[in-house]
Structure of Dihydrolipoamide acetyltransferase component of pyruvate dehydrogenase complex:
Amino acid sequence: MATDIVMPQLGESIAEGTVVKWLIPPGGMVEKDQPLLEVETEKVALDIPSPATGVLREVLVQEGATVPVGTLLARLEHEPVEAVMNRVGGVGVRTRRAASAGEPHYSPAVKQVARDHAVDLSDVTGTGEGGRITKKDVMDAAAKRRTSGQSHSVSPTPLAAEEQLVPLTQMRATIAERMVLSRRMSAHVATFFEADCSGIEQFRTGRSFTYLPFVISAVTQALKDVPIVNACWRDQGIVIRKALHIGIAVAIEDGLLVPVIRHADRKGLTQIATEVADLAQRARSKRLAPEEVLDGTFTITNHGGFGSLFSTPIINQPQAAILGVGAVQKRAVVIHDAIAIRPMCYLSLSFDHRIIDGATADRFMSIVKHHLETSNWDTRL
């Protein structure tokens, strides 16, 4: 008896995924719920657990291949190891049929990249499973066209002895696409404020809170007062979203993920802190569920965790703004005409000037600052 391993549906808007790495070699034993392979989509990277205990009989999709949801990836054999190995030893890995003739199927992600880069898909040669066109194929075609357009005699510059070429992962390619697209779509403007964290510092004494839950709580209060910041742009107009789903940027080994705390305004500091820690840990161990990175309405990036003071983060589309949080440092400040030492933090807001005016952005930031400096945190536990 065998179990088919297929590319899972990793979210409503996800049409394909990339097999990054098989964590069990062909012929290897795997336990039920043990990580079997690592899959990456344009939104999330995660380990796929084995649906049963058995032997990985045959692998049909190799590492690096991008295939549609539902594609047969491998087969898991439930027979004893000796029987499986004896039978599989003389059997080659099955070759999957190429896509049937007729109208070619392009995934939504491929179509979007083709539109963004003005690439005619009929001119692109697919390197994916069954000759399918992948996003990398489209980006390679766009890069080739740009190169040939500059000069027909230009050839790739060879690497020097001390240089190394690192191939793009799907996540890195997607991050690059989205960052460039965001800068092209939104009218980016930034404003900076400074907050005194003395009250937070005092409240944290004897408690295990980081600064981030306090920022999230303050942001939700400000979004209620200035709802236009919790909006997105559409050709028909500006959509103000009532739900406050706060995305938290998490740096992982090879990129960035933004898991979402849903209805953050309904949660106290303790619950927010618990969810932040849990989401961050599972993001780094690639155990996030796809739906946990969807539907964010506002994003916070805590670049201060690495010691950074200032940042102008790029807006996470289709949102209207993103808040950057710098490191909390003790600095000399003037309070009532006297110099004092206070734990201070720089806050930055990158916002879409099509949606938010400068005065509105500054009002939002002044409210965030006010809540950080004056809130009675005991009432928000």
